Prior knowledge:
Layout: H1 24-34, E1 44-45, H2 53-56, E2 61-63, E3 69-71, E4 75-78, E5 89-94, H3 97-107, E6 115-121, E7 128-142, E8 162-173
Parallel strand pairs: 4-6
Antiparallel strand pairs: 1-7, 2-3, 5-8, 6-7, 7-8
Amino acid sequence: GKSNLQRVSLCAERSYSSDLDTAFEWLAKDRFLNEPESHAEIKWFHPSTSTNAIATDIPGGGIDDDGIEIKRMPIYPLGAVHIPHSGENHTIINIDQKNVKMATDLMNGKWENSLFCASLRARDTNHIASVGTLMQLLDAEDRSISGAKTWPGDILPTLNRVVANCRAVGVVEILSIEEHDYEEDDYL
């Protein structure tokens, strides 16, 4: 006869997507240990506890003792990153206030050649991968939304949003994240 069993999906409610375990750090280490010829080891930084004398010794950037160019630039931490071919364009929609601020600073010339580093952030540990994609902001458009209302008619706060058109310029190794008393709206 027919079984009386029903298929059931079990779901656990989470408050935020950051509550979910991404296991990026474990996955990177596992791939490196099991296939070292195909994968490089990735170091991970915690944004508030990572410092390194190399970057702090060269305030605006420069050339280190090995002839490698070192630059200061902001980091754009993302929950998913792929290393694109240099020269490819990408659109990034910024709604997080710290990323809107970074895009605005890039547009206003605060950072040399509008360069920034897109890097993987493990949502479960908040660690930043030591490998990133060097990106250049080509242009950006403010697409903030104001005056929106809820169904009962209450006015919602303005949603600050910047749409950035960027180009992948290369691959970088992140040497350090500067120690800083970060405010909630500060970017790395």
